[in-house]
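Entry 0007
Protein: 3-dehydroquinate synthase
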Amino acid sequence: MPDQRSPAVRDRWETSITWQRFSVPFAYPVAFTRGLLAPENPLLAETLALREPDKRHRALVFLDAGVAEALPGLAGEIAAHAEAHAAAIELVAAPVIVPGGEAIKTELTHIEGIQDAIHAHRIDRHSYVIAIGGGAVLDAVGLAAATAHRGVRHVRIPTTVLAQNDSGVGVKNAVNLKGVKNYTGTFAPPWAVLNDLDLLHALPRRDRLSGISEAVKVALIRDPGFFAWLEANVNALATFDPAAEEHMIRRSAELHMHQIAHGGDPFETGSARPLDFGHWSAHKLEAMTRHHVRHGEAVAIGVALDARYSVLAGLLEPGQEERVAVLLEGLGLRIWHPALARPGRGGRPAVLDGLDEFREHLGGALTVTLLAGLGRGVEVNAIDPALVVQAMDWLAAREAG
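Output (structure tokens):
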């Protein structure tokens, strides 16, 4: 059909579109070592010198307050290490102590304080920000580093099981805002992740155990052989056998890294969150308890809940959820918390609001990962609240004995 518009109208609304296309490859080392800060260990110096081997590199260290308290000599070890590798490392100041745990993620003033330090010490895009701490500190320092100068080099040194086997190897940097978990943040890959397994010895037993829940989670959705290994080594893991703990952390990190690199959506532009099995309720439970329930503890509960839901929804063979529950309980993790029964809108359990928040965080349709087998995740786009309540009743009954 011929265009009946006048030439003036056609010219006015003529549109020309040119697609700008480019891709940027990301690559960063994830290392495992022991005694990272021992003077004879060259890993940190070699990491800073990856791109410019003949340069002395300026670095500013941010240290988790909980780690500093548990390891009072650590600041001195950092200084001694830098002195031993003075040709490669120039510490611009003593380590800056920052709050650990969710405290650093609940106030944007902490992010501003980190950025103030980056500015005051003239950390530029060829300098380094080094974060030593748990996942919350890595998240917060990573956000500040990613937004200062539109991105300065960030080296993560995770000090918890949860950060070494999961969050520390990823590309997210985020803090909480408006009561929503990880509401404000960026996707910015780190310069490097240096895992020092010796640092785990300073962890309280509660935190050391809770981090294993992320290994259980990723095994359940990606690797049946790893899940069977976790079952076979439950006692060794619960007593922190060094070889078992190291294998658990390494394999969990590998599975998380593989999903980020090969899952097709490393920056979560879609509506799926395939690595977040058990997390829709876990994030809500954390908020409902004002983080008295740790993230790993909440994930253990969420994993057990969604395993039972998978059975009730006809996705998972009955009895398989028992194996999940027995493993988590054998590790010393609870799979029930009274907050799950707390009433919310219309009298339904308040934790169900986590489904709406889970969907809203990414937008689009609700997408939740459930289990089609032990080691095989499947995505669904609807959750039946009545079945969730039945699954919670099952958890409560186990708790009651």
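Curator remark: The longest helix spans residues 242-262. The first strand starts at residue 30 and ends at 33.
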